[in-house]
């Protein structure tokens, strides 16, 4: 089964849950920017969470399906259409052989995730299908899609239960706790970092008190923020150590950088905080030029939020698999 790329879009790459176990060799984890949308799309078509999805950024591709397929799109609303007919987010759709999936005007968010029932047949590099464009490996030839590419999918197993997935999709809004499903303009929650006390009281207050603009020099590696300068109480030497998705580093200019999916494996800048894992998908849907606010919460709160989301996902993914 194959899908032909008629137009590639702005940045369309295959991603999964990441390339773990190689950070000690300097190999980045990579993976999806919005794990929640990735897992939702996979669940709706009956795939496992680790199946690769197509991460579509801002301007979507035009894809021609040479065989019938069952798909779902989650995340950003980038105006998806099948043969000109609008396709709603978080819905299961059957694409007839010969039909085209296209994208139009962006309405909300930055990244959409396309899942195909049976998964995309993408060769793994170090155990992951995630594309790392700087390294030139993973995904489809280690690069974003381009015109003329043929994308292979796994075996398509027809199911008489697909209609039940529509009911599952309608209940998505109640699948997550109110604490997780926040409005788009809600603050991004963070916990204090290892070097929290190294920063002045003014800096710690400013982190929450003032908005920050996402710089145009932001990408999958990191979001550079522009706003109040965050100063240390005194010059400090920080030993380089492992960093994670959501670490908030503060270089010498005092402008924080939030590390994202394609982050480096180690860093030596002081870390004032870490974005709560449950809010990383919300951050990943923010565009350069947009303004965000941060809110400090304690570790217990962050853990409760994540456990709540995982319980919801476990129930949703089990329901979807048994419905297909």
Summarize the helices and strands and which ones pair or pack.
Layout: E1 2-7, E2 11-15, H1 35-44, E3 53-57, E4 62-65, E5 69-77, E6 80-82, E7 85-86, E8 93-95, E9 100-103, E10 108-116, E11 150-152, H2 162-170, E12 188-192, H3 201-209, E13 212-214, E14 222-226, E15 241-242, E16 247-249, E17 257-259, E18 266-267, E19 271-275, H4 280-284, E20 291-292, E21 294-296, H5 299-322
Parallel strand pairs: 12-21
Antiparallel strand pairs: 1-4, 1-11, 2-3, 3-10, 4-9, 5-8, 5-10, 6-7, 6-9, 12-19, 13-14, 13-20, 14-17, 15-18, 16-17, 16-19
Description of the molecule:
- With 324 residues, the chain is an alpha+beta fold.
- The protein has two domains: 2-174, no CATH class; 188-306, Cyclophilin-like (Cyclophilin, Beta Barrel), CATH 2.40.100.
- It has five helices and 21 strands.
- The chain has helices at 35-44, 162-170, 201-209, 280-284, 299-322, and strands spanning 2-7, 11-15, 53-57, 62-65, 69-77, 80-82, 85-86, 93-95, 100-103, 108-116, 150-152, 188-192, 212-214, 222-226, 241-242, 247-249, 257-259, 266-267, 271-275, 291-292, 294-296.
- Helix 1 runs parallel beside helix 5.
- The protein starts with a strand and ends with a helix.
- The relative contact order is 0.17.
- Determine the fraction of residues in helical runs and give it as a percent range: 10-25%
Main sheet: strands, sense, barrel: 8 strands, mixed
Order of helices and strands: EEHEEEEEEEEEHEHEEEEEEEHEEH
Count of distinct strands: 21
Mean pLDDT: 90
Report the span from N to C terminus: 19 Å
Radius of gyration: 20 Å
């Amino acid at each position: 089964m194959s899908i032909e790329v008629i137009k590639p879009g702005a940045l369309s790459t295959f991603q999964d849950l990441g390339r773990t176990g190689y950070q000690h060799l300097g190999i980045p984890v990579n993976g999806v920017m919005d794990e929640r949308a990735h897992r939702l799309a996979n669940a709706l078509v009956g795939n496992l969470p680790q199946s690769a999805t197509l991460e579509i950024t801002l301007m979507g591709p035009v894809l021609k399906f040479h065989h019938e397929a069952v798909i779902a799109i989650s995340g950003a609303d980038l105006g998806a259409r099948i043969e000109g007919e609008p396709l709603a987010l978080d819905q299961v759709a059957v694409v007839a052989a010969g039909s085209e999936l296209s994208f139009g005007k962006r309405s909300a968010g930055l990244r959409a995730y396309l899942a195909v029932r049976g998964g995309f047949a993408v060769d793994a590099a170090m155990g992951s299908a995630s594309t790392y464009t700087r390294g030139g490996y993973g995904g489809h030839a280690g690069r974003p899609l381009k015109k003329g590419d043929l994308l292979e999918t796994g075996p398509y197993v027809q199911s008489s239960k697909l209609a039940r997935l529509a009911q599952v999709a309608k209940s998505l809004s109640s699948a997550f706790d109110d604490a997780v499903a926040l409005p788009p303009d809600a603050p991004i929650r963070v916990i204090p970092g290892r070097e929290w006390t190294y920063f002045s009281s003014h800096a710690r207050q400013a982190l929450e008190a003032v908005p920050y603009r996402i710089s145009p020099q932001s990408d999958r590696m990191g979001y550079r923020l522009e706003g109040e300068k965050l100063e240390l109480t005194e010059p400090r030497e920080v030993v380089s150590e492992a960093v994670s998705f959501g670490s908030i580093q503060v270089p010498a200019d005092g402008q924080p950088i939030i590390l994202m999916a394609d982050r480096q494996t180690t860093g030596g800048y002081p870390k004032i905080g870490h974005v709560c894992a449950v809010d990383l998908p919300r951050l990943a849907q923010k565009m350069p030029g947009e303004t965000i606010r941060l809110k400090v919460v304690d570790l217990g709160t962050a853990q409760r939020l994540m456990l709540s989301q995982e319980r919801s996902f476990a129930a949703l993914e089990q329901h979807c698999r048994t419905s297909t």
